């Protein structure tokens, strides 16, 4: 069953150790001594919170070094013709490794799917591990660019996720058009396992709104 469908997010919960929104101070430039997971950036110097969920496109900006962030939906649903999938409590957990790099873990603990013939399936989803690297615009500027290599582990049941380890690369880009409007773009290339050929092929994924 094709799981790369546009999603409708009913609710989103974000928990973070950093400062967010209007409470965040003006980000300070990194000190001479680099911030890392074990040398966290002080909270009063951290960037405003920016989430990857529930947007269709990913953010090119990373979590601050030493910060932890949890992004979780209560319920997500996707439709494609007669196919339907509902995910309960899917989450994305992030930890800031350096000033411009974070590590992410994504997982859906319960999924329910129905295909065109009305057959249903239930189970857990795959596990995705991602490394986000910001190339520019993490602290200042109107544009930001990042790289996100990832791997998907076949932890899902039946139709939920791949049967083999897969991976890929996401290239997110963002530009601030004015104080209240921004534009996000993304390119994604997936290395997908083809069962019939017992081999991998490279596919370009077009994000859908």
What does this structure look like?
This protein is mainly beta. Helix content is 0%, strand content 48%.
Helix tally?
0
Structural class: mainly beta
Cα separation of the termini: 20 Å
Kindly provide the radius of gyration, computed on alpha-carbon positions and rounded to a whole number of angstroms: 18 Å
Shape: globular
The residue-averaged pLDDT reads 84
Could you give a short account of the major beta sheet?
A: 9 strands, antiparallel
β-strand amount? over 45%
What is the strand arrangement across the widest sheet?
Answer: 2-3-6-7-10-11-12-13-14
Question: Roughly what percent helix?
Answer: under 10%
Order of helices and strands: EEEEEEEEEEEEEE
Count of distinct strands: 14
In terms of per-residue confidence, which ranges show pLDDT below 50 for 5 or more consecutive residues? 1-10, 18-24
